[in-house]
Amino acid sequence: MCISQLNACACCLSIHVRDALEADKTQQRIVVLPAWRDTELFTDQERAALTLAESLVSFLTAADKTSTTARLPASSAPSSCPSSAGPRSS
């Protein structure tokens, strides 16, 4: 879900929020995810995963600006989602 937020993909966010709620994640954790560094709701392992995810998106977004071949790997997101091809450029 964090990557979908960074990619600004409404389609993927809709899917991941639904999945998170079905997996009994609290609404509070979902809502504060963009500010995960400022809360104690996430474990050290989750924080490490979030750091890695943000770093990967940041790296690939920067690489995408200089090369048309840098893309995030295909995810389980439907191919109709714009971010299934990789991060969006601003």
Brief account:
It is built from 4 helices and no strands. The protein is mainly α and 90 residues long.
How would you summarize the topology of this molecule?
Blueprint: H1 2-7, H2 10-22, H3 27-32, H4 44-66
Domain Carboxymuconolactone decarboxylase-like: 3-54
Protein name: AhpD family alkylhydroperoxidase
Organism: Streptomyces rishiriensis
What does this entry look like structurally?
Helix content is 53%, strand content 0%. It is mainly alpha-helical and 90 residues long. The chain has four helices and no strands. The radius of gyration is 14 Å and the shape is globular. It has one domain (2-85). The relative contact order is 0.21.
Provide a count of the helices: 4
- By DSSP, the count of extended strands is 0
Content-based structural category: mainly alpha
Provide the gyration radius in Å. Answer: 14 Å
Low-confidence stretches: 85-90
Pfam family, one: CMD
Protein name: AhpD family alkylhydroperoxidase
InterPro entries: AhpD-like, AhpD_core, CMD-like
List the defining traits of the structure above:
90 residues; 0% strand; 53% helix; mainly alpha
